[in-house]
Fold these 4 entries.
Entry 1:
Amino acid sequence: MRQLIFCLGISPANYEIIHMATTPQQYIQRIDSCIGERRLRDAFVQLRALAALASDWRITEDIDRLEQTYRMMLDYAANGQSDPGRDDLYTSIVAGIRCIADRARYRIERRDSPTMYYSTLRYEALQKGDTMQGLLDRYLSLSDRHSAFNAILGRGEADKKSDARERESLERRIFMRLWVAFPMSAELSSQLKDVFVSAAYSDDFKSLLISSLLLGLLEHYDERRLMLLLDVYASSPSGRLAMQALCGALMAMYICRKSVDVTRLKSRIEALRDTTVWTSDVQKVFMQFIRSRDTDRVSHTINDDLIPRLKKLRPDMLKLDMDASSIDDLQELLSDNPEWNDMLRDSGVADKLKELMKMQEEGADVMMPTFAQLKTFPFFHEPANWFMPFRADHTSITDALGDEAAKIGGLIAAAPFLCDGDKYSFCLALAVAPQAQRRMMLSQINPEALSELEMRQATLDASGDASARDTAAGKYVQGLYRFFKLFRRKGEFADPFARPLNLLALPLLEKDLHSPETLSAVGEFYFQRGYYEDAAEVLEMRVGSGPVDAQMFQKLGYAYQQTGRLDEALRNYSQAELLNADSLWTRRRLGAVCRLLGRTEEALEHFRIAEKARPNDASIALNIGHCLVELGRHKEALNYFFKAEFMGKKPERAVRPLAWALLLTGDTARAREYYSRLIASLPTYADYLNAGYAAMLDNDMPEAIRLFSMSADSFDGDFTGWLDRFRSSLPSLYPLGLDPLLPPLVVDTLLYRHS
């Protein structure tokens, strides 16, 4: 191995580093590290070592050409020659290094990797007699035979079904073969372009090809695949196909952003801006990517919050159909009985339903928790079936539902709230439901309404209307999300939804996404849903993109505060205060952040100003009291704590600080009264601890020892940690007359009891 490394031109100094990397992924990580540190010479060293494992002379030749280009660029720079295209060339070389590394990994892993991708690749490599063009021709022939014209010729039902099965089998075969075709040849790219522009192939088949192109692109970056998706977006007369292709292209551009040759892609995107509604469509897709982040939150709300609350209600409520088709249906079912209204409100179910309805109205995917349970049918064992556009005459449906397939399938096909995969799930689930339930459902279907729904759906599919394109993108992203989260072998796929698909990070899309309107919409989405780190990043961009109002600085300050970046929070709250000095909300936030930063005098000043505007506000009084305590002005603080207790809607909020202030002023009798109230309700370890201090100051040692012991027991069994807390407040108590000998005696007493 050492001799081979030296033959590749790797110096002895680099040998030990190279020798440590034993897997393709380790080599790629080292290449990425070198690129990140702008050490391309070392990156080429690592790349050659990786290529040696691949044993492919074509890869070595490509490395030679790319490195020669880099050395020529270095010569130009070393000779001081002007090179206006240097930045673009450097970016192109970096992308080339990554692409060659990916090809080398592909060559190595195709030999024996057990994943579905490489197993499929090895299977297809053995099918010497099949070509992609041959498979496409066979598929087209079968489609012609299955057409309405040929049906008139009197082919029997058995023959039609046999043809349908063979056609569906070919669809899956073509999907899998295209998935593993890497790198895509110019010939294959040309064949697929012909398919996408041909009216002979159905939109459903083309949709399947789009998904296969995307899956392969996420496995290994391939510029031809990406360009083909952009071609489909630009030329397809179907709004649905155009948006699906754009979803795939944008997802790949982000996931593979380190490998994309920006120079070539830039001109392609510029052309699309001139010839399509590119910017508008990119914004639509980006918002769908953002909304997909809410799916886990919705699932958590339903599975871990709503359903457990429902199960705690009366047993007869559990007889309801919890698989209602929408949150609206569920709310209607639950509220049908007036006797349940109070129960719903008191249990929190009503509030959760309102929250979910609001999410649904805003485009959140509330169907995921229900249909996640229906993806175990054998139909979903095939990757291609997850992306199969819904057809009521698909053999999986006709086999499952028999004579009822046309009627039920037609209804499900027109359902506007389901993506294609969920429609298959619904039909397959109905097939195993009791026949009485299916008959009841069929009896409620209005043929006229069904016909209207089908016409409306067909219009949407073909429409170039903005809302239709948005809907198409949304349903496609839902289908993708389900595949990567629920497919039984999902661990073999890199999940593009594992982290936010932040298209704002792509310089190529800056013109499309960095407008004030788009940044405001994205920032607001993140802010409202509590994604404060993302909200801060986007709102900061928004501030830099044009004029903003005080509210924008308020939100930015709050986002920074929630992520612990207090200096930035203070800066933005101060900007908000400059724009709107009368905002009580901003004033209180300024006070809170100043206090957290230890700038207590400034905090007190802010709360004093707020007090002038709202003299009877208990919360402001409470904050002023806290500031005064921190400044050592305990008697003044008492007045504000008493005021907060008297004026507040929740007087218990003032009890703890009031008791502590009484203790620090030496009024141990009243302090003990307040601590007794706290201990009688829901005491914390600190309540027992502070009550023990008060008893110790009164020389009531038996009571003090009892309270300290209870405090230590409440401190999660960490007696050492409790001792630190016990000792931390003692300096404040010595000026009140505490005997310095008592604390050590208390500690030893407790140590004997806890040993």
Entry 2:
Amino acid sequence: MIRFLALLLFIVVLPLSTFAQTEDEPVVWEQQINKISETEYELVMKAKILDGWHMYSQFTSEFGSLPSEFTYNGNGTIYELIDGTLESETIIEYSEIFEVEETYFKDDAIFTQRIKILDPEINQIDVDLFFQVCKEVCIPMDKKFIFTLDGSEGEIIKTVDDRSLALGQKLRLDLKNRELLTQGQDTIATGTNIWVIFGLGFLGGLIALLTPCVFPMIPLTVSFFTKHSQKKSKGIINALLYGFFIVLIYFLLSLPFHLFDSVDSQILNSIATNVWLNLLFFLIFIFFAFSFFGYYELTLPSSWANKMDAASSKVGGVLGIFFMAVTLAIVSFSCTGPILGGLLGGTTLAEGEVASNLTAGMTGFGAALALPFALFALFPAWLNSLPKSGGWMTTVKVVLGFLEIGLALKFLSNADLVGHWGILKREIFLGIWILLGIAMTLYLFGVYKFPHDSPVKKLSLGRKVTAFISAAFTLYMILGVTKVTNLKLLSGFPPPEFYSIFEQESDCPLGIDCFKDFDEGLAHAKKVDKPILLDFTGWACVNCRKMEENVWSDSEVFPIIKDNYVLISLYTDDREELPESEQFNYQFESGRIKEINNIAQKWGTFQDVNFGSISQPFYVLLSPDLEVLNTSIQNSDIPTYKNWLLEGLRNNE
């Protein structure tokens, strides 16, 4: 079971592997359409089910597994159904889990549906199917069937009706002085510095070097290259090449995310703020943490490492060195996997180009792993100065375990904020972090130990220093919760201050009156004749909280915003459904059509269409008649942001 979960986590953390398996789908579908008369047709949908899997009927018990559900798009308008959807032979079996009889298919399933055409001009019938297949696990799946009456190739058609066109036109602003948005961008601090992400990845790689899965391999691998080469220079070249391949492997693992970027500019932001994905990350990080605590070991199938090792021996040369680097990535997974997961999670929390950030972070991680192999190959005498492996590496893993739980809570908080559950309020979040800090401090002082720990006879200097840092950080959080001090060092990680267990006057940042709908805010700005501070933000946006708590809260910046601007905060990660009357299909100038069904899709598209940006935070100054008053700005320091606001006021005079 542990090995299976480790494999699952490897697929989540290292997404390249998800592109390798495309043919072992549990259900393969075929379809055909049979003409019965000039107005009646029979739709046939056939499923071939993989051995060991089973798929549930439409009529299985509602108290058991999920039934198959067909949605016939256009039913009642362009055609009508004749009776219900018929099924082939099924199996009925009692489920001890749900304590009901379940109806399902094995090997194959056939569904047939007769229809009567109402619109003689129609040529295409679209059918959506939701179904569930199970083996040891159950997987919900979707399938779209497109039937054409004349036998031609069908296509997925999204329509833009008059109502959608009107709502889409309303989403576009007639901005005046639009060119000012991008003027002087090189002097404004914008976005997340990609070198910072590279540095964080590099730091993660350095931490991974200190774990027992990687550290002992450094002298062994370097010695192998230097001793098994006929010339010293050849050994050094091979070791450097080995390091290069390590960097290359981790770089390549980030490339699939760029495929997502090419599909939809907002897709990675949608993924990063998805409630269920954040919950999945929460569970994964908790699972990682307990592996670091020593309750179980995460390992990928040993056959993977054996195959790579055999390939490196058999092939030899440059290709053999590449396979050796792949072997390192596999055998060190139990220690590097959780750290890579943290890197992936941290990248989704950072605003900007997520795929580019991930590439920078993964490359930094690989560079840190490769660095010692290159350095010790050039200066082999340094190997004698390396500390010996020992219990200190176990301590490193346990500390990482506590950090994993802390990061896991951030993902749970994201899901809570975006889902508006109200479970993990700011004080509760910080209270759990304080308990984690106390637990880590007591562990470092040797008060208790974990299963794979050896008895602590004497605390090392490094362990004492780390314990005091942990205690100081815990005390800092306690003082912050009790309002003795602020928590600016943690800005962005805990939930915002207005998300509190105590009643707040406003659910807007810093208690400032704000609008969360652009049209309402614009109407108010016209009424009071004040300019607009347009704030594209997100519930799970770390940098947004940093700006609000570190810059907006400044004694000189705060009154400018509060007294002189109408604040409109648009949340681009809010998954709350729009009223049905406000849902529509938006057509871009390229012809691409996007469904606008929730608040995030509406304001995310609004930002993209009008301001050419998809990152948060993103700030724009507008007059009540939609004149751009200053260049757009993102992350900034206090003086720059203050001057930016004041210049906007001057331009509005």
Entry 3:
Amino acid sequence: MAEFKTDIEIARAANKKPIAEIGASLGIPADALLPYGHDKAKVSGDFIKSVRDREDGKLVLVTAINPTPAGEGKTTTTVGLGDGLNRIGRKTAICIREASLGPCFGVKGGAAGGGYAQVVPMEDMNLHFTGDFHAITAAHNLLAAMIDNHIYWGNELEIDIRRVVWRRVVDMNDRALREIVLSLGGAANGFPREGGFDITVASEVMAILCLSTDIDDLEERLGRIIVAYRRDRSPVYCRDLNAQGAMTVLLKDAIEPNLVQTLENNPAFVHGGPFANIAHGCNSIMATTTALKLADYVVTEAGFGADLGAEKFFDIKCRKAGLKPDVAVIVATVRALKMNGGVAREDLGTENVEAVAKGCANLGRHIENVRQFGVPSVVAINHFHSDTDAELEAIMDYARSMGSEAIVCRHWADGSAGIEDLAHRVVELAEAGASQFAPLYGDAMALFEKIETIAKRIYRAEEVIADKAIRDQLRAWEAAGYGDLPICMAKTQYSFTTDPLVRGAPTGHTVPIREVRISAGAGFIVVITGAIMTMPGLPRAPSAEVIRFNDEGLIEGLF
């Protein structure tokens, strides 16, 4: 078997261009870039405003089947397709999210693509990058500190300390912080109460940054955050504490999109990083809308499977930003479909056409779901060296039976040369103008009905179960004027159900709602289902155990 270089070895050997040259390829002048070293930069808000009247390019969404431990390669395909479109003469920019430190040191690894379809500098992107996540963490926790400080100094707003809903965040997987007790140690430390931490990517500040159109919109949205309730159940807002101004100052650089490059020196915007299983799972509106003004094609991704990321991209991001996607690409692998067909991970290297065919039911469900939004789609088979011709043909046959098409893509091994067929097909679909995009539900639909619509039409559930207290809370938010908000489902990414062990394309299951939260600043209702956690934990053997400097002073173990 041929020996393959690791992703980090490939990234380290990249022939990068100065970031000013990458900006110039999109028509961004050097004085509109704030460099962070030689290979990454922020794009100024003033420049972004100056191009808002230009026509938009074509928007391509990359989504996937439900993730498995076998790997799907959604970001890798996003990067590869961007390079492929540039290769065939379409001026293309890529828009992806930033990496959270939690998964990097936990189990998932990096978020910059892989093989010869990567965005660089890979090490920086998977670590501190330009500091955006740290700024978001600081802004979020500043608000938390100001809440407790206000209570300590007399509580003029009459906050009911039993009903403080603003938790703290840290960008790390730390299960010990999920539920904590604050202010122990006597009167000098305040009033003891229960609290907890979420991971930074689940912060409403993260969602707000990704959904804001400029810094003024950011500040206004931060002011709308509901932080607590009084005894009469009336809400207390961030603006009541006068915290939004200082929070915005902390985020002044973070809100500006980051520009980097692929291994083939094509432009990539990497900005924001909400998870798709507990947040809305898309990169920032500012990055996407700016890219659309500067490029003929923009390739972006939405997190995890299409039941989470694509649904939220369509129903939240596109709704909020007025985006109209032209094409969707659904990524699948032979290995992942075999797992959906019941094959154990250790047996994935053995040919099993029957298991592939059985696992295709999961792919078919995602094809049907994307079709519900009126967006034409094509399947990208992210090729692994262990795939056999018979297994690949089984996927292609199945896609044809669904009225779609599956194209084998070898971008991981061959870069843009390995994905030209997909690039040509995407152009054909986009230029045919067949997209009739519409969200799944209207703004006026009742909140619980919106939840049922997602559960029944996307997850194929039989029913949604929610306690009376949850239904009453939804009705109270409707009465308070929040009934037009979209829904952000928090659900396991591994299954259409709320049970991560149920693979394939199940039907007739039940979706239990554990909790609902309002993100009034971001502008959606978070619905927490099953046992999903907003603070992940580390696995038994976290990736952090093997990440280190080697004798040459180079990083090892980072993907």
Entry 4:
Amino acid sequence: MLRLRRYALLALPLAACVDGGENTGAVTDSSPTTLPVTSNPNVTTDTAGPTTAPTGTGTDGTGTDSGTDTAGPTTDAPPTGTDSTTTGTVTTENVSVSTTAATDGTSTTGEPPVCPEDQIVCDGNTAQVCDGQGGFKSEEACPTLCAPNVGCVECIPGETECQGDNVATCNDAGTGFDITDSCDPLQGLTCDANSGACAGACAGLGLSYIGCDYYPTVTKQYDLYNTAPTHVFAVAVANTSAQMVNITVTRGANMVTASTVAPNTVQILDLPWVNELTKGDGPSALVVDGAYRLRTTGPVTVYQYNPLKATTTNDASLLLPVNTWTGNYLVAARGQWSGIPGFYAVTARQDNTTVTLTPSATGKIIAAGGGVAADGTGVVVLNESNVLQVVATASDPTGTIVTADKPVQVIGGHKCTNVPDNIAACDHLEESMFPIETLAKEYVVVPPVQVPNDQLDKAQMVRIIASEPGTTLTFNPDQPVAKTLTNAGDFIEIATTTAKFVVTADKKIMVAQYMVGQNGGYGTSDPSMLLAVNPLQWRKDYLVHAPTNWVANYVDLIAKTGAAVKVDNVNVPSWAPIGNTGYAVAHVKLSNAGDGNHRITADQGVSVAVGGVMSAGSYWYPGGLDLDLIPQ
């Protein structure tokens, strides 16, 4: 096994001294310029004037001394020390370096720096303990290795090595290795002995909706529409790579199915319903191995349909790969309607994951179970692929905060609800929640189109949910709602509307959109749910899937005014401005002639939402996003 060691090389304790006998910069003119070496505010800088010092002639740091150079100042960056214990100035007329103090106040001009008392430094494999006076109070010959600031160790903290298919990392104490990653053969990964890391097409994936490891999770559905073979729970696996990809689906230790998906195509996989999760109206429950695990040998996108072909009640979710999961989420759902509950489901990726539930002001009446109390609170430990589904009774779990000490997935929604409550008919809602770390302070909100008259907008209801207390909202154009959210988890709801607007906040928010039901007078199809994607995470390239057996499928596009966008390599010709915001919206009907895969490309970031209708049924999901962490 090859160990990759990260040595902090110390030539005598602490700080590196600036070598006044060598200048690595190129000299370009004759006017002197004074440049700081470091920015330590506790150290006095000597600016008394230049002193003659020999300078190097090379630009790679290896040039030989050639005496005083009078050609002028260097244009390269000034030399700096390796820590904050030395400072000074470089006067580039003749290059002078002055180092005046160490962190303990001892003058070090012309002398090696002094390391603080009790700091451990290494001289080869000898650990030396500094006395703070320029010497050492003790030293020890290490039988194996010496690590700076640690001493004698069995391994260098942070170094990695391969142990079979696992990556092991030396612990902070240097006493041994802990398994920190597994190179999964079902994802085409192997442990590379040269790098001490997993290698393969699925290694080092960025923070986007494209990945190799997913957890499809069945959620509550109206009981007439969650029984196979008439209605099926299914996933669509879209291959975004140029290579054939193998798919493996397991549930716990059991193999469920295996398949392949060719480049730039999609594979639909029907999966058995998990009755403990989808049937009935509660109570809340912890279902062991309740989720499926879907792994691939190359990057793919995955969407789940609950169910795939129902003409009455369904929805779809964009699933997020495990490399984007965190331990912090807000829930978007809806309240109990006609005795039918809203819900959220938490899926664990690792054993011994502790999940803590903090209900919102509206989410404190819960069907207790699975470790969840009737007031919505709970601390529950989940193992890998376990699902905790929290079922609301006379409450609305929207705004509930889910935290975990290891990464989890959270899906929020409703078994079957009207939107709004007095407009028929009910439909299943679900969407995979975005981690709080990826939420932002600005979103562009547009409604979908009507079917069959797609020249008109279909009305929606919009919820804006606060991730922090004391959140203030601004709308452009303005919307007739409250502008202040007092507590984390509080939300405002914009009633039935076809308005297009930008909402901004002084703190991170989440925006959930809900189609209005078919009897609302805005065309066919009943409710579906969508999470808005903030502009910082819009992409220039998407591969999405829309089932070809649906009556009509559309993409809703949002971009900056003037953006060039193509759908299936055809320019999007018609855009409608969104007030004076600088954004525009377009809706494009997708062809059902192909396999359901569609490519959207743009010369700048564009938002993509995919939706479809089948009689009264509908689905709606974000086409994708880059899940970069957004600063506070």
